[in-house]
Structures are given as structure tokens and as C-alpha cells.
Amino acid sequence: MISSTLLSVATLAGAALAAVDCTGVNAIAPGCASQESLHYRDFFYIGGRYVAGAAGNLTYDQVYVEKLTPASGVNQSHPVVLYHGGGTSGVTWLNTPDNRKGFASHLLDYGYQVYIVDQTSVGRGSSENLNDYVMRIGSTAEITEKGFTAPELTNAYPQSQEHTQWPGTGVRGDPIFDAFESTFIPLTSNLTVQELSMRSAGCQLLSLIGPSFLVSHSIGALHPLLLSNDCPQLVAGNINLEPGNIPFQSYVGNATSSVGRTSARPWGMTNTYVTYEPAISSSSELTYELVGDDTPANRSCYMQTGTIHKLTEIAKVKYVALTGSASPHITYEHCVIDFLQQAGVAAEWIKLADKGITGNGHFGYLEKNSPQIAGVVHDWIQANC
Ligand SMILES: *[C@@H]1O[C@H](CO)[C@@H](O)[C@H](O)[C@H]1NC(C)=O
Ligand SMILES: *[C@@H]1O[C@H](CO)[C@@H](O)[C@H](O)[C@H]1NC(C)=O
Ligand SMILES: *[C@@H]1O[C@H](CO)[C@@H](O)[C@H](O)[C@H]1NC(C)=O
Ligand SMILES: *[C@@H]1O[C@H](CO)[C@@H](O)[C@H](O)[C@H]1NC(C)=O
Ligand SMILES: *[C@@H]1O[C@H](CO)[C@@H](O)[C@H](O)[C@H]1NC(C)=O
Fold it and tell me: Where is the signal peptide, in residue numbers (predicted)?
């Protein structure tokens, strides 16, 4: 009786499967197979503290960490920890907006133990700390279209015309764009508080899991750099997909216009303290100036002047930035590399086009050729572990 019931359920599921459209969001239907790699999943909260409130004691500043283990077993010597960028969360490493295999799964396929972090204040990393994490809008549809998914339409920088890898039209109304835009959530405007909680919990995480490769996207690059400063012996390498922590400035609105720049990150690439040599006790002791010609294709950058202070702890960790040929970052990522090199960090820059990987915008790891980008990350790890 039981087995015949099961059989009829299975038959029904099979019949449903044949009829079901599994493209895009339709893949949520029970009959649709996952594109992700077979893995086990566990979650943990790391760090944080109790803070006495009027209603009772609250947990503040713990970091959400998801542990993904390949079903076929781990065969790489070091784990990989993924740090999402601003306005999004750890979901960005899972199945892509057009429901292809996500970046985390590509790393599982290579045999890595993978950890996905939700930054403090964001997603499942949000805590009862309502006081310190002042939140702001993550990304409007307009910012996403112009900056990430369809920069070619507004042509704010010449390289935008080479953008070919976003799946779909990259504008509102396209189901892939709508699925992607829906992943944006508020982010905190107090990065000082976020950096402090992330660096404290981050070194605790690494002391539990051992030396790891840290892979970040965009402004998520703040955190691996801070961990390189605080516990360099626990960071096997620091891999940054389009790092967003450009020295001493941020780009707002028209990302390539010089009027769209605001001062940011007083410690150079971070908002909070990092070790420099000669030692400084205040970021105001750093002196810097704008250097280089400024064109829409290649931006001017802040570099130190006068006494050049070296990032002696950060320099202990290997650093690489990966940049897409059609991303706004191709116009200013040299600022990151030049600043780090001047500060004594042997920073490496991989322009993806030099590896024959072309047409990528800022979210290359979600775009059509994302498997190739995962391959570049894997190759770099293999060459540096
Ligand atoms: C919070 O915890 C502390 C230490 O255990 C305790 O003294 C205090 O009464 C708690 N606060 C509230 C409001 O329950
Ligand atoms: C690890 O396992 C993956 C998946 O089975 C395989 O492709 C890869 O070659 C293996 N790597 C090592 C170093 O054994
Ligand atoms: C960030 O939060 C901290 C702690 O509440 C506060 O001291 C600081 O002034 C805030 N910074 C900004 C820019 O709001
Ligand atoms: C952005 O600024 C650049 C340089 O000032 C200008 O050429 C371009 O038209 C602007 N693009 C947009 C979308 O506003
Ligand atoms: C861009 O500008 C930097 C200086 O800021 C310079 O070193 C570099 O050669 C320039 N790149 C191109 C492609 O012009």
C-alpha cells in the first residue's frame, strides 16, 4: 500500500516534470532540477557579543557563515571564504540570476571547502544592533543598469561598449535583470562599525578553519584586506574580483565622472586602522595627491606623497585583483594596484582580457562566462598555495 502510494506520487512528479518550464524563476517548481553542485550545507554564527538593553540582553555583531562541503569530498589544502559586495548578500555566490550554476558551485567542483559570509548588518548577518548600523539603499534599478548590467547603453566610459556577457538585456522588464535586481538589499552607511565587527569575527573564523583563500567582490574587498592586516598568518591569499576600495575616494552617480568622486577610506583602502611603517597613530598623518591623467577610459588616482608609509602586515599576504574588460573598474582599478605597490604590497593585477576572457562588467562572476572566471581564481590559488 505504502509503496504503491509512493509510486503514484513519483509518477505524478515525473508527469509534472515533463510539462514544467524550468527556465529562470520557474525553476523554483518542485519538478525542476538544481543547477548547483551536490554538496552538504551547514551554518554557524561567529563572533559577536551580548549587549545589555532595556528589554534584556541582545546579540550584536555576529557574522553569519555558511559552510558548503562538496559531496565528493574536499581535496584542496585550503578553504575558500567568499565575501560579497555592497547592496547584496551571500546569495550572490549561489545559482545565478538566470539560474545557471553559481560561483560557489564552481569552487565546489574544484574540490574546495567553501564558506560564504553575510557581512554584519546585512542579510542573515543582521543582528539586534539597530543603533550602529545606519542603513541605506543598496542599488536602484537605474544604478544597476548603468553601472553593472547594461553600461553600454549609457556609454559613460568607452570600454562599456565591449560589454557582451550579461545574460539578457540587462534592463528592467527582462526576467533575468528583475531576478538580479531583487537580490539587492540595504547596506550600512557606517562602514566603520561594520569593518570593526567583520575584522574581529573574521580572524575568529580563520582561527577555527585555518589559513584560507579569501575571495571578495567589489566593496567586500575591505574585509580580506583588514584580515590580511590583523591575522596575516591565517590568510593564504587575497583574491579580489573588481575591488571597490579605491584609495581615498569613492565614485557615486556617474561612476566615471570626476565630479562623481567623494573622499572616502581615510586609511587609504579602509575606513579603520591598518598598520603602516613608519607607524602612524592617525590617518591624517598620511599625505597623498592625485596623479595621472584623467580620462573617461583611465582615471587619475590618489598616491602617497612625502614620506611613503608601507603596509607591512598587509604585504605579508599575496594579493590579486581581477578586472573585467568592460567594467567601470577597468578605468580605475590601476589605482588600487599602484597604491598597494607603492605601499610595499606585491599586488598583482589580472585583466581578464589578457587571459582571453572578454566582455565582462562589474558582476562578471554572474555573467555568461562565469565558469572561466572561476577557472582563473582556481589557477591563481593553485599557483599560490
Ligand atoms: C543582561 O545581562 C547582565 C549580565 O548577565 C545582567 O546583569 C542584566 O540584568 C541583563 N539585563 C537585563 C535587562 O536583563
Ligand atoms: C579534486 O577533485 C575535483 C573534483 O572531483 C577534481 O576535478 C580535481 O582534479 C581534484 N583536485 C585534486 C588536487 O586532487
Ligand atoms: C558610526 O558608528 C559609530 C558607533 O556608533 C559612531 O561613533 C560613528 O560616529 C558613526 N560614524 C558615522 C559616519 O556615522
Ligand atoms: C559620465 O561622465 C563622463 C565624463 O564627464 C561623460 O562623458 C558621460 O557622458 C557621463 N555619462 C553619464 C551616463 O552621465
Ligand atoms: C592609466 O593611468 C595610470 C596612471 O594613473 C598609468 O600608469 C597607466 O599607464 C594608464 N593606463 C592606460 C591604459 O593608459
Answer: 1-18
Taking 90 as the threshold, does the pLDDT of residue 315 lie above it? yes
- For 37-69, the pLDDT digits (tens) are 999 999 999 999 999 999 999 999 999 999 999
CA–CA separation, 78 and 381 (whole Å):
9
pLDDT at 12 over 80: no
Task: Judge whether 352 and 323 are in contact, CB under 8 Å.
Answer: yes
The response to whether residue 298 sits with its C-beta less than 6 Å from ligand 5 reads yes
Element (H, E) at 135: strand 135-136
Q: What is the pTM of this model?
A: 0.93
Q: What is the CATH number of the domain that holds 78?
A: 3.40.50.1820
Residue 44: per-residue pLDDT? 98
Spatial separation of the C-alpha atoms in residues 303 and 335, rounded to whole Å = 8
Query: How many domains would you assign to the chain?
Result: 2
Q: Which domain holds residue 28?
A: 6-35
Residue 301 near ligand 5, beta carbon < 6 Å: yes
Whether residues 86 and 14 share a domain: the answer is no
**23 lies in some domain:** yes
**Which residue has a Cα nearest atom 14 of ligand 2?**
75
> How many other CB atoms are found less than 10 A from the CB of residue 161?
11
Q: DSSP string of 284-295?
A: GG--EEEES--B
C-alpha span between 345 and 318 (Å, rounded): 8
